[in-house]
Amino acid sequence: MNDRSFLGEEFENALLQINRVKAAEIFQRCYEENQKFEELEHLAIHALETIGNGWEAGTISLSQVYMAGVICEGLIEKYLPIMQIKRKNMPRMAIGVLQDHHALGKRIVYSILRAGGFEVMDFGQGLSVEEIVRKTLENQIEVLLISTLMLPSALKVSEVKEELVKKAAVTKIIVGGAPFRLDNNLWEKVGADTDGKNASSIIGIIETEYGKAGE
Amino acid sequence: MNSFERTMAAISHKEADRVPLFLLLSLFGAKELQMPIKQYFSKPENVVKAQIDMKEKYQNDCIYTFFYAPIEIEAFGGEVVFVEDGPPNSGEPFIKSFEQISKIQVPNVHQADGLKKVLTATELLKKEVKQEVPIIGVVMSPFSLPIMQMGFEKYLEMIYFRKKDFKKLMAVNEAFCVEWANAQLQAGATAICYFNPLASPSMIEKNTYLATGYEIDKRTILKIKGPTATHLASGRAFPVVEELLATGTAVLGFSGDDDLTAIKKATQNRLCLLGNLNGIDMVNWDSKIVNERVSHLITKAGQGGGLIISDNHGEIPWQVPEETLLELSEAVRKYGTYPLTRSH
Fold this sequence. Notes:
By secondary structure, chain A is an alpha/beta fold. Chain A has helices at 3-16, 20-34, 37-56, 62-82, 104-115, 129-138, 151-155, 157-166, 178-182, 186-189, 202-210; strands at 93-98, 121-127, 143-148, 172-177, 194-195. In chain A, 58% of the residues lie in helices and 13% in strands. Chain B is α/β, with parallel strands linked by helices. Chain B has a single domain (3-335), classed as TIM Barrel (Alpha-Beta Barrel). Chain B is globular, with a radius of gyration of 19 Å.
């Protein structure tokens, strides 16, 4: 095992134990050894991806996924200015919860994207179709991430899509949340462009599929 | 054999005339009576009529007096948001700060408007069905209720980093849960469905659950003066089967993600399984899929009793067609008649 993977494993364990102090120590060590933001980013994203995969496999809890995201978000937040790095603002992204007030899923994805160095607007929760569409248009959002917990909220995504199309917006929609996990084809039925089953896969999706959305 | 006897046989790990079917129909009653959901839940008499009608229509083996999850939040002074095609949802969490927790009072279950309606519906239903059909009341576990009281993110912060606040809120919730469960039993409920999604390792890691919510669950279930069914609301149950069994619960609502063979083996003659059909996916099921799912479930878990067929979340979604439920009911009679044949 090389130093990088050893450090990665140690960092992941600290996250799974919700040990903020230990995680910060490992991050600091990585910073001192490498002085490269890419290394810190890799440490955070790799750990979050592994943890996300563990959740999908049933070996890791949703609470651990959430806490790991929040810890990593905080660490990246701290080192961005230290290393004079600006957040990536392409594509223009926003996230929101349709209809209900269950914001955990949104918060997880938000944290993971922030931990990956991305800029993402938070539209909040309990949003109506009209509100989310208006905010999307006003902010010229290219990738809209919609989180839902309840089936009726998930079904409302089709109305969001319809309204955006009517307004000639080319915004791509990525959906996530329990209804989409329990019904594999639901994302297509509601007209979403991508299904983000595992929150940790979001960075890969953004980089490979939407990295050039604004071009 | 009536529904009560059939259910009792299953819980006693005996083979009755057939596997019981618990269609957990809550807001579906509004569809049955063709009225808006908010209007439906405004009068206990609506729930009584719909429950009786749906019991006959779907050959259902239980009466379900569950209105909606945030009815308990209403009792605490929180907000409920009604939508036209789904379960009423909790609004913005009413606990905005940790400091607020020490001021929260245990609501009086006989004075809260929504809870009184549930108790009235339970009393009326008991008069109708007497001892022939089990009436299932519902409570949220003290450990899971804060997800609606304060929002999941804030609650997790409290679980991990604010032990004193956690203990204070649990004391309030535990007292409320026990009082609410016992009031329903007194009104005529046969058993209490104890919803506890946060006990599932899908939601929180097992060691944290054991160090936090588990002792509370053990104490609470012990104080409920009637049988309980612990329901993890589609979260995985297998990794905590032994612990949940030790709480004294008689039935376990398990997940579509649980390994059917493994969980049956672990619970055989010890704990009755309730589940585990995927309610969300059920929206898409045709007759063939209904038959496949029901047949598979009964073949894997029906032998020797100890199985009640149900959805895995605790509520049939509004979007599931009535025809699907009728097919499901027929499939249970087709494949679930004892003695089971192994050929299907």
